[in-house]
From TrEMBL:
Keywords: 3Fe-4S, Electron transport, Iron, Iron-sulfur, Metal-binding, Transport. This is Ferredoxin. The keyword Zinc does not apply. Its cofactor is [3Fe-4S] cluster. The keyword Transcription does not apply. It comes from Streptomyces subrutilus.
Length: 64
């Protein structure tokens, strides 16, 4: 699984960090980012739900 965050689209709503806190966090400005070492999704079943929860569709999840 590969996770990409379009930082140009992200508005910092934080839905991803609330939905999958083991994979996503927010930077100092409130924008979404992946936790270190979680670029592969860490096998979390909530990653796809976090992508769906994003109000601006800034998160893309793809199978490798």
């Amino acid at each position: 699984m590969r996770i990409d965050i379009d930082t140009g689209v992200c508005i910092g709503a934080g839905q991803c960090a609330l939905t999958a806190p083991d994979v996503f966090t927010q930077d100092d400005d409130g924008f979404s980012e992946l936790l270190p070492g979680r670029e592969d999704g860490a096998g979390s079943a909530l990653v796809r739900e976090a992508a769906r929860a994003c109000p601006v569709s800034a998160i893309t999840v793809r199978e490798d």
